[in-house]
Design goal:
Order of helices and strands: HEEHEEHEEEEEEHEHEHEEH
Helix content: 40-55%
Strand content: 15-25%
Number of strands: 14
Distance between the termini: 60 Å
Mean pLDDT: 93
Structural class: alpha+beta
Low-confidence stretches: none
Number of helices: 7
Largest sheet: 7 strands, mixed
Strand order of the largest sheet: 3-4-5-6-7-8-9
Length: 298
């Protein structure tokens, strides 16, 4: 083993801050240029659909982080969102997992909810996770068995979830993902319908998997569910943070969390997590009934 987890953590924090500052400055420049010239000013490329895009800033941020990692750990594997978009494998080797801009659509539009994510895995387990929010200058990080922490101008210290157990007093985050087909819309609507009819206190779609999970870890939100869209670079850090802060993480079908999956459910407590699982399950039944009726009418 050619690493010490504390050294890995410090490098991830340093790289996150450096890349995050670049993202922040680019965002500011884009806003100023947009006011002067109009329209979107950061060039972007459509990946799987118009809801799944990548900007030049994503590529530059990832390259910046990769160079810093390679300079210290040249033999470690790296899974980056932009460099590994065509496919990747998580092995037992020391592996860095990078999302250079989580919330790219937010970044593209200037919406202030985006972050840089860096995680480290060994023997297929996440040992360290870092999230840097350059807009609000907030650093979230966790190590396995070492707790979840935050560094900001207002607070520096250990984090715990809200421990909320009741959906009626909970603030829940979710996301529609990339899909816009009728089936995708029905699935998303069926979940929203279940949360709403159960009188959830607050329900929001904000557009960053990483920040959503960090907010559950620090108690700003009480739960988060997203199905069929996020990948390992979106939730690896957040999964560790929520667990280290005392929260609950699993797949939306109730199975053990899978880093190679495409969905995530996390909550401030196991009790609230079980309620969210019930919502997803009943929502799925409603989705199936709706599809049967639609086929009959067709």
């Amino acid at each position: 083993m050619d690493f010490k987890i504390q050294d890995v953590l410090e490098l991830a924090k340093e790289a996150g801050r450096k890349a995050g500052e670049f993202v922040r400055m680019t965002r500011v420049k884009n806003f100023v240029d947009r006011q002067k010239k109009g329209g979107k000013v950061d060039k972007f490329v459509i990946k799987s659909s118009t809801t799944d895009v990548v900007t030049e800033t994503d590529h530059k941020s990832e390259l910046m982080i990769t160079k810093m990692i390679r300079s210290k750990y040249p033999k470690h594997k790296i899974i980056g969102e932009e460099s590994s978009s065509e496919g990747y494998d998580l092995t037992k080797s020391p592996t860095w997992i990078i999302d250079p801009i989580d919330g790219t659509t937010n970044f593209l539009h200037g919406f202030p909810y985006t972050c840089v994510l860096i995680s480290f895995a060994y023997e297929m387990e996440i040992l360290a996770g870092v999230l840097y929010d350059p807009i609000h200058s907030e650093m979230f990080y966790a190590t396995k068995g070492g707790g979840c922490h935050m560094e900001s101008k207002d607070y520096t210290g250990k984090l715990t979830t809200s421990a909320e157990t009741d959906l009626k007093t909970a603030y829940i985050l979710t996301d529609a993902g990339y899909g816009r087909s009728e089936k995708d819309v029905t699935r998303f609507y069926s979940r929203l319908r279940e949360y709403m009819t159960r009188r959830v206190q607050g329900l929001r779609v904000l557009g960053s998997c990483g920040l959503n999970m960090a907010y559950v870890a620090c108690g700003r939100a009480d739960g988060y569910v997203e199905e069929g869209c996020p990948k390992i670079w979106d939730f690896a850090a957040g999964c560790l943070m929520v667990r280290e802060a005392g929260g609950f993480v699993c797949m939306p079908d109730g199975k053990e969390f899978d880093l190679m999956g495409r969905s995530v459910l996390c909550a401030a407590s196991k009790e609230l997590g079980n309620t969210l699982l019930e919502c997803v399950g009943k929502g799925k039944k409603y989705e199936e009934e709706f599809e049967k009726q639609h086929k009959t009418c067709a």
